[in-house]
């Protein structure tokens, strides 16, 4: 079987029915979850660079920025404050913990219950942030936002994949990333506008507006139908059939329904999905689901997403120029993601990973070199206008590369390499590793900038070299491969093949 090609067999991907308006609308509502996540990523950097916000909650940072002391001349260190980074990063720690609870709730009570709880928690968090009078309320609000993100990120991608007809599953999965990037962009523009507000309360608007996508998702989730898979999982086969007929727009859903029931039966037979995950035959999945989210974060993308305005200010840009440059990278991020939607099933995952990786490496070396040349080790210096523009260009080229490679694929690939029997632990590992390293980067970046200075860009660039090599040698191409065929794909791989017993790769019971 090993050399047998990976053509879709039977009716995989060819079920009856089409793309109905109903499925599109439900998916748009569900994708609001990505908007929550994205808005949050984009808002914190802008807010933490606003003077009024710093004066109120982080006076020490504010004074260091403005008092002109010797230390202040060192541009690299002026924002290095652990409490300030805790503001950004506490959310991801909360999301990491919440995602474990969310995975149980999603399984037992259905996807929409998780979306509802996530939206609600996010809504309360946004309100607390908007009215916060002290740092404790601010951090509690952040933690509630984190719980919201944990629930949304666990349930929304699963919801989208389960609702989507197989033939557009890849594109719909990336729809989640499209929503993330739009959320980041909206946040960038909101910050740009609220920074103008004179009364010192602009940051409150920025933080409170997170309640808008949260409200959409909370109310939307009440009206959303649950997925057929989830309904079957809870034993209601007739109801699942009616739902499938509605979302596919046809009476004849026998084939798909049969497969869903078979898949659900097969998954139920696996008593210990977590223990299974550590069996040698799932080694490729274990490695891919752990390394891909780690690699996604160690590209350094969130240095730009969280701290672009702070970074630009560190490099001597003015307030407005900093926020504007951050908004420009936000636009590039959205547009680039559409490149991925259009090409991922044509050119494949590996081609995008490798092109994106090489482009990122070049940009990181150039950015690190430029900053090193102008600011040296002391951190004293400035850019001319032309140099500043070139720097923004390099950062945009880096963001573009990420947006069509590691951004969407970092979520897509781990979710598609796992056979059904280990899909849920695989996804849980993916989400939690991602959140953990998002936390580490958010918490560590300003200190790292202060200590390793421009070398930080070489540090991330070095990792991108490693991960590009990993993709080249160790990542099997999953383009157009049905999920049910993953064991065979691994069996045929030069390295992973030895972990997969022959009977697993050819056995029918694994191709439910
Ligand atoms: C990542 C985020 C990142 C975003 C940028 C997502 O795929 O998980 O950490 O901020 O892409 O667009």
Automatic annotation (TrEMBL):
It is a multi-pass membrane protein. It is found in: Membrane. The keyword Transport applies. Residues 26-479 form the Major facilitator superfamily (MFS) profile domain. CDD domains: MFS_STP. The chain crosses the membrane at residues 20-39, 83-102, 174-193, 205-224, 285-311, 323-344, 356-376, 388-407, 427-449, 456-475. GO terms for molecular function: monosaccharide transmembrane transporter activity; symporter activity. Gene3D superfamilies: MFS general substrate transporter like domains. One of its GO terms (cellular component) is membrane. Keywords: Membrane, Sugar transport, Symport, Transmembrane, Transmembrane helix, Transport. PANTHER family: SOLUTE CARRIER FAMILY 2, FACILITATED GLUCOSE TRANSPORTER, SUGAR TRANSPORT PROTEIN 11. Belongs to the major facilitator superfamily. Sugar transporter (TC 2.A.1.1) family. This is Sugar transport protein 11-like. The gene is LOC116212194.
């Amino acid at each position: 079987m090993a050399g047998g090609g990976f053509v879709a067999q039977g009716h995989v991907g060819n079920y009856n029915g089409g793309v109905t308006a109903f499925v599109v609308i439900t998916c748009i509502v569900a994708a609001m979850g990505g908007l929550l996540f994205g808005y949050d990523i984009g808002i914190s950097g802008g807010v933490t660079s606003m003077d009024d916000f710093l004066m109120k909650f982080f006076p020490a940072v504010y004074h260091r920025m403005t008092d002109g002391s010797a230390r202040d001349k060192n541009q690299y260190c002026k924002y290095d404050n652990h409490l300030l980074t805790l503001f950004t990063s506490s959310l991801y720690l909360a999301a990491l913990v919440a995602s474990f609870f969310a995975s149980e709730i999603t399984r037992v009570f259905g996807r929409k219950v998780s979306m509802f709880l996530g939206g609600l928690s996010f809504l309360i968090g946004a309100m607390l942030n908007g009215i916060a009078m002290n740092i404790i309320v601010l951090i509690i609000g952040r933690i509630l936002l984190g719980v919201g993100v944990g629930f949304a990120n666990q349930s929304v991608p699963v919801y989208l994949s389960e609702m989507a007809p197989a033939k557009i599953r890849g594109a719909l999965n990336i729809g989640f990333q499209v929503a993330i990037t739009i959320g980041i962009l909206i946040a960038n523009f909101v910050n740009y506008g609220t920074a103008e507000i004179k009364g010192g309360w602009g940051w409150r608007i920025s933080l409170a507006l997170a309640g808008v996508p949260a409200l959409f998702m909370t109310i939307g989730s009440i009206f959303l139908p649950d997925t057929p898979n989830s309904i079957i999982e809870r034993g209601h086969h007739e109801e699942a059939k009616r739902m499938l007929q509605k979302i596919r727009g046809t009476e004849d859903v026998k084939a798909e329904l049969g497969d869903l029931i078979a898949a659900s039966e097969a998954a139920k037979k696996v008593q210990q999905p977590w223990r299974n995950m550590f069996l040698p035959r799932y080694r490729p999945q274990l490695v891919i689901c752990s390394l891909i989210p780690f690699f996604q974060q160690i590209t350094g993308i969130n240095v730009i997403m969280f701290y672009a305005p702070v970074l630009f200010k560190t490099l001597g840009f003015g307030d407005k120029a900093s926020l504007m440059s951050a908004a420009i990278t936000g636009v590039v991020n959205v547009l680039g993601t559409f490149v991925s939607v259009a090409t991922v099933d044509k050119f494949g995952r590996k081609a995008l990973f490798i092109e994106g990786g090489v482009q990122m490496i070049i940009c990181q070396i150039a950015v690190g070199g430029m900053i090193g040349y102008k600011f040296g080790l002391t951190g004293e210096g400035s850019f001319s206008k032309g140099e500043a523009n070139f720097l923004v260009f390099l950062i945009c080229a880096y963001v573009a590369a990420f947006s069509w490679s590691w951004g969407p694929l970092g979520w897509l690939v781990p979710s598609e390499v796992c056979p059904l029997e280990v899909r849920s632990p695989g996804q849980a590992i993916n989400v939690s590793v991602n959140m953990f390293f998002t936390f580490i980067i958010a918490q560590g970046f300003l200190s790292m900038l202060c200590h390793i200075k421009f070398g930080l860009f070489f540090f991330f660039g070095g990792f991108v070299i490693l991960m590009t090599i990993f993709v080249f040698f160790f990542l099997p191409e999953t383009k157009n491969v049905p999920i049910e065929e993953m064991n065979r794909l691994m069996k045929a791989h030069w390295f992973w093949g030895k972990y997969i017993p022959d009977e697993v790769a050819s056995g029918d019971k694994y191709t439910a």
